Amino acid sequence: MTQELGLDHVVRHRIRGLRLARGWSLDALAARCHLSPSNLSRIETGHRRIALDQLVAIARALDTTLDHLVESVDDEDVVIRPQACHTEGMTSWLLSGERALNGVTVAKLRITPDRPTGTEHLKVHPGREWFTVLSGTARLQLGERVLLIQAGHAAEFSTMTPHSVGAQGGPVEILIILDHNGERSHLPSGAVPRP
Asked: Are 93 and 99 in contact (CB under 8 A)?
């Protein structure tokens, strides 16, 4: 019951916040959702229960969805607690909560020099990849070219070029953004939870 009351408060706060963010008065929003300004005021302040049909009309008037008005308020959809996933020469931590978020996966990789590299380990797939080096030096092989990417620098490239990322002279830590094809190609199968 406490969680339900907390959500009720959050929904009311979101309605008021969205109204104010648009610079609308109570009268302006009330006219858009066909409610009286006094009813809308009582809804925002908690002096009146919100009926589902009113909530639908308010969401529509605010150009949002019911889902956005009533989404969870707990930390589980905000705080990501990455779990390490180990493969030969690489440890990965998934940093994005939902792969569907803009169709990309964000991961931190720690690569050691014993990760298998070489021509037989080059990957090719549709899309583009981006990474930044957090510490150490990354060895990016793009076809015949080898580029050394230092800490603080980033790389972006077409993944239709055969490529691999390794470590040069010691471990390297990178933050990488992968699309669905890159995720399947570069992360261990257990690293990304499936919906």
From this structure: no
- What residues pair up with 86 in beta bridges, in sequence order? 91
Predicted TM-score of the model (pTM): 0.60
Taking the C-alpha atoms of residue 122 and residue 86, their distance in angstroms, rounded to an integer, is 20
Judged by DSSP in three states, 32 sits in helix
Instruction: Give every strand in the sheet of 172-179, ordered side by side.
Output: 84-87, 90-94, 104-111, 172-179, 128-135, 154-158
Q: 28-31: long-range contacts at Cβ-Cβ below 8 A with a sequence spacing of 24 or more?
A: 29/58, 29/61, 29/62
pLDDT in tens for each of the 195 residues of the chain? 344 557 788 889 899 999 998 899 999 999 999 999 999 999 999 898 888 889 999 999 999 888 888 876 665 566 777 888 898 899 999 887 654 456 778 899 999 999 988 788 898 988 889 999 999 999 999 999 999 999 999 999 998 999 999 999 999 999 998 877 777 776 766 555 444
**In angstroms, what CA-CA distances link 87 with 95, 137, 179?**
17, 20, 20
- Give how far Cα 3 sits from Cα of 8, 9, 23, 95, Å: 9, 10, 30, 28
Picking from 6, 44, 8, the residue whose alpha carbon sits closest to that of residue 24 is: 44
Do the beta carbons of residue 109 and residue 183 sit within 8 Å?
no
Q: Which two tokens stand for residue 174?
A: 């990178």
Task: State the chain's maximal CA–CA distance in angstroms.
Answer: 71
